[in-house]
Amino acid sequence: MQLIDKLSILADAAKYDASCASSGAPKRSSEGKGGLGSTNGMGICHSYTPDGRCVSLLKVLLTNFCLYDCQYCVNRRSSNVPRARFAPEEVVKLTLDFYRRNYISGLFLSSGIIRSADYTMEQLVQVARSLREEHEFRGYIHLKTIPDADPALIEQAGRYADRLSVNVELPTGESLRTLAPEKQLKTIHQAMGTIHQGQQAVAGEVRAPAFTPAGQSTQMIIGADATDDSTILRSAEALYGNFGLRRVYYSAFSPIPDSPNSVPLAPPPLMREHRLYQADFLLRGYGYRANELLGGAGNLALDIDPKLAWALEHREHFPLDLNRAEPAMIARVPGIGIRTTKRLVELRRQRRIRYADLARLRCVLSKAKPFVVTADYHPPQAERSSQALRQAMVERPQPQQLGLWG
Ligand code: SF4
User: Fold this and answer.
1) Dist. CA 112 → ligand 1 center (Å)
2) For the chain, percent of residues with pLDDT exceeding 70
3) pLDDT at 324 exceeding the cut of 80
4) How far, in Å, is the centroid of ligand 1 from the Cα of 169?
5) In 3D, which of 227, 171, 172, 218 has the Cα closest to residue 193?
6) How confident is the model at residue 58, as a pLDDT?
7) Is residue 68 within 6 Å of ligand 1 at its C-beta?
8) Where are the beta strands (DSSP E) in 166-323?
């Protein structure tokens, strides 16, 4: 098979993986000048799922042969798709050729499991080692980690890769047992723990060799099983807390050709994935806890964003006097982000905040105005019921172009 034919199959096979954003990688400046490329924290290139979503950056599989039979995966053992396999040196050559032509900024490499977890991981590491040591490649490398592989191999991968990811795939052990019985949540967590320990070992050590400087990430597939958003967010929260993950990526399940009966025929609403990303952003950046956003079982609202939903359920905190409130509470006002909160706090050190300041500082007034008090403004909407406010603020988004906050 020609290299270009393999590339066609193995790039297409990789497009379902959403876990390869490349932001946050510091430049490898300590490794000297004259190497190829540099890590600039930008995305690499884009790939699209069949329904048109842009899900990730540069990506290719080493092979789409796989011993496992995960029901949601197009590359599963029982799938009737064309198969191909790169030799490690072929991936190295492609990466260097594409890099020199300015097509890419780095490599995202994943793989089906062939022969054994250790053998597959060795092949992935071989590619990264060759790029870094033989070709002085300074571009971005994101390696997918095979959870069952020897921890020593995962540690080697961490020395060469900017980012490692171990896909948890499904939010609970029970979901894995049903849809991916050859995988175990325990070994996935162990692999994440190995990476986390490697990161902690070099943290603060100026002379220590880099170890996954862009951190580790994972992917959760949404809507392949009946797990609700509450469970998904709690699972993500635990991963952030236990393993210091940089990002959890949520990927709405894409029905695949000839899919088994165990997975749905239709995808979940794209808005569900979007709301999970918004909720995840609140966990990471705003100090919300998963059980604040979804107290009981169930899913996030689709018609309003989770920050607005929280504010409408906690009217006892509002309207909030922006001239007196704690910064952490100001950041919880719908339509006011972290950066604007800082600017408001700086401003009120000089003078009292007025309503016009909110527009000037680019608050989303349509969302913020029922929830804030300023020196010259008290919201008439404060008397309206949460239900009435919600009706007035329901979003009607364009499904193909979703900003983080609608
Ligand atoms: S191990 Fe990975 S490639 Fe293989 S079937 Fe499962 S998800 Fe697909």
Assistant:
1) 6
2) 87
3) yes
4) 10
5) 218
6) 62
7) yes
8) 216-222, 247-252, 320-321
